[in-house]
Design brief:
Helix content: 25-40%
Number of domains: 2
Strand order of the largest sheet: 1-11-12-5-8-4
CATH architecture of the largest domain: 3-Layer(aba) Sandwich
Strand content: 25-35%
Number of helices: 10
Shape: elongated
Length: 343
Amino acid sequence: MTPRQEGCGVQTEERRSWDNPIWTMIAWSVIFLGIGALFLIAASRKTVVIAEGVKDGKHSAELQAREEIPLTLLSDVQDGKLYVPLPAGSRADQIYVENQYLKRELHVHLRDVDPSYYEVHPVYGDLSHTMSSHAYHTGEELVLILRMDAVLEYRTVMNGGTLEIEQQIPSEAYQLLVVLDPEEEISYQVASCVALYLNGDVRIYLNSMDENRLGDEEMERFVKDSGADLYLRIGTTQSEDPSEYGISAEIGTLYFLPEYGNAQLADAIVRGAAISTVNRGRGVTQAPEESILWKMEIPSARVSVGYTSNAKEAELLAMEEYRKELSQGIAAGIAEAGTAMRQ
């Protein structure tokens, strides 16, 4: 070991003794044990953000087939939060929070939790939006279900031994609220990817294709209850002429905000999708009078992503990469609409 140079002091024999491999091993062991203890202390106190997800309709149907377990709630604060006590040793990876917004329900999935735990440790907090509650046990997980009186957003953190769920009105959580209403499986595949190409201040509400799907009357009510800013129906077109192809849109009433309305939204979506896919934009026409578009009180349109009666376009629509391009173009149109509406 080279001694320090002038200005660093004189190296002593004791300092040089750290060159001994045994002393080195002991020193590093002590250091690692100390660091590990600090991590354990921090882990016991840290706040962990719990991601929100969506399970498929089949899972929801399986839950409904099981016997309901009563779930007691205590209302003791008005701070806009729900508090879910967690058994000792619970980990973030055992928790899954699901916003079933179409049904106005909050589902909290807890793995390896005995149903009897919540007989002694009830869920508590601000219940001003909670209409009813119950639970299901699948054998692997306990699912707490709270039915709300409104469409809400949730921000969930695991704070020590408690799950804290902040309830928010959608317009307070996001700058732009968009409802996408696909008509069939192809358009659902397109719609389900749109959110990937939008930034975090845009919330996409997606109608499902399973038993939870909202019909037109329910959808009209959902749009109002959610406070949505834009409504976009997505479908395809059939024609007797197999040579027709391209992307088009329909609108109902000429509803408009100052300098922005249905026609501008439809044009932005068609233009975005046509540019993204290098396809033909066929323009905007008026929707049939029976269309849900006539009942909307926000900027709304129906976009046709292509002609399934055209063999070549039907082949394109069956390709995942092409559908992603459509999603990206629709997202560009939504982003343009959002920017225009905020000006």
